Amino acid sequence: MRYEEFKVGQKYTVKKIITTEMVDAFAAITGDKNPVHVDEEFAKTTRFGSRIAHGMLSVGIISAILGNDFPGPGSIYMKQDVKFFKPIYLEEEVEIDIELLEKIEEKKRLLVRTTVKKSSGEIAVDGEALLLFMQE
């Protein structure tokens, strides 16, 4: 899409299952091997009761959506504010919602809300991202 075609209030939603393989790969790539993410026996002893996904894994999925789907190619991530509210468990389906909050016309920037919801409807991750839109 061209910048001019984006409208404030426009939304994009996708569902994903956060798999064990995704969490293990994220741990291997980043080196974040906190046992609450990679060791089921340890995780059972925590308040979570089971392994949970890295919070930044969900932000990485948001990044992929922003760069590939909405707004898509031509958008450059400039800033992300994020808050983590609820854990995401392995093999849990989540819904990722992107909503266009503001267009900053003079600089071709987009401000979007980025939300990850659990299957229960609870918000796991919430934030805002600022994007530079480069495609004409």
Automatic annotation (TrEMBL):
<feature type="domain" description="MaoC-like">
    <location>
        <begin position="11"/>
        <end position="118"/>
    </location>
</feature>
<protein>
    <submittedName>
        <fullName>MaoC domain protein dehydratase</fullName>
    </submittedName>
</protein>
<dbReference type="InterPro" id="IPR002539">
    <property type="entry name" value="MaoC-like_dom"/>
</dbReference>
<keyword id="KW-0456">Lyase</keyword>
<dbReference type="Pfam" id="PF01575">
    <property type="entry name" value="MaoC_dehydratas"/>
</dbReference>
<dbReference type="InterPro" id="IPR029069">
    <property type="entry name" value="HotDog_dom_sf"/>
</dbReference>
<dbReference type="GO" id="GO:0006633">
    <property type="term" value="P:fatty acid biosynthetic process"/>
</dbReference>
<dbReference type="InterPro" id="IPR050965">
    <property type="entry name" value="UPF0336/Enoyl-CoA_hydratase"/>
</dbReference>
<dbReference type="GO" id="GO:0019171">
    <property type="term" value="F:(3R)-hydroxyacyl-[acyl-carrier-protein] dehydratase activity"/>
</dbReference>
